[in-house]
Amino acid sequence: MERTNSVTTKNTLNITKSSASRLALVESNTPEALRKLSRDYWTWHFDASLSEAVRRLLSTELGWETMSQLTMPPVGEVISPLGYALAHENKEVRNAALQVLDATVDIPAGIAYIGEDNAPLEMDGFEIGVYPVTNAQYQRFVQETGHPPPQDWADGIYPANRGDHPVVWITCEDAEAYAGYIGGRLPTFSEWQYAARGADDRLFPWGHEIDKPRCNTAELGAGTTTPVVSFRDGISPFGCYDMVGNVWEWTDTPYDDEGNFRVACGGAWYYNHDYSTCTSYDFFSNGYAEFVIGFRIAR
């Protein structure tokens, strides 16, 4: 039997604006209305394939009028509208949220600059997840395949309020099992860096400097993971969110000749900016899991 998560509301923000104008735009069902809704409310990746999912979500009361508070204290406690959608009693609303989180972007062929020495490398085109894989997406996988859940879940259910947080306590083997389940794979080290940096040698997805909160690192003070949709100002040149900070992300690239260890990229919330850049990497054994390790998929 399908099980869903509840959302606790002790930290719910007060809605101070009327939702009437938003609902009127949804009901008008015109391209112009959807463009205005996307500009005024939607901080996530959007393309035409998501239009119906976006309309459904924007027509549901999910705290849209206060979504701008996502990166303000207490960051670790605020629930995004997508987080509310993933715990909604209506299955169609939950499925719309999952469709948004499943989004990928096409990365074109080009020249990537890899590593701290910025070595140029010719890259083929590929597809990569807009977001790291979240708890809600991984729960769908667990429920449909019987794969063991992460160790921080109780009774096979992820922690309350964290549907749109990146899943953690994931081994490389777990990540590969999920990728196979959705017909994908893990990105290579070079693909990951190209998706994060674009076609230049930037240190962070947005450039070379930290000028405001653009990712979840120790400096933010969240003390935990944050919703993968929180940092629109931190997206990469290709439109990927959370490429640095939040969680380390497994890649398909082995660290050792025997293939017992894999490279993970991007740093995590537990580390400061010095260890959470486009060139940051670590390596872990294939069967290792930790509270700061997750992944995203590629094809």
Q: What would you note in describing this structure?
A:
It is a single chain. By secondary structure, this protein is α+β, with helices and mostly antiparallel strands. The chain folds into 2 domains: 20-101, no CATH class; 104-294, paralog of FGE (formylglycine-generating enzyme), CATH 3.90.1580. It is 25% helix and 12% strand. The chain has 8 helices and 8 strands. The chain has helices at 20-28, 31-40, 51-58, 81-86, 91-101, 135-145, 172-181, 189-197; strands at residues 104-107, 110-114, 119-123, 126-129, 248-254, 261-265, 281-285, 293-294. The strands form 3 sheets. Strands 7-6-5-8 form a 4-stranded mixed β-sheet. The protein has a two-stranded antiparallel sheet with strand order 1-4. A hairpin with a 4-residue loop joins strand 2 and strand 3. Helix 1 packs antiparallel against helix 2 (31-40) and helix 3 packs across helix 5. It is globular and about 60 Å long. Mean pLDDT is 91; it is low at 9-15.
Which residue ranges are poorly predicted, with pLDDT under 50 across at least 5 consecutive positions? 9-15
CATH superfamily of the largest domain: paralog of FGE (formylglycine-generating enzyme)
CATH class label of the largest domain? Alpha Beta
Number of helices, counting only DSSP H or I runs of 4 residues or more = 8
CATH-defined topology of the largest domain: paralog of FGE (formylglycine-generating enzyme)
- Pairing-aware structural class of the strands and helices? alpha+beta
Number of strands: 8
State the distance separating the first and last CA atoms.
Answer: 31 Å
Radius of gyration: 19 Å
Architecture of the largest domain, according to CATH? Alpha-Beta Complex
The largest sheet, given as strand count, sense and whether it forms a barrel, is: 4 strands, mixed
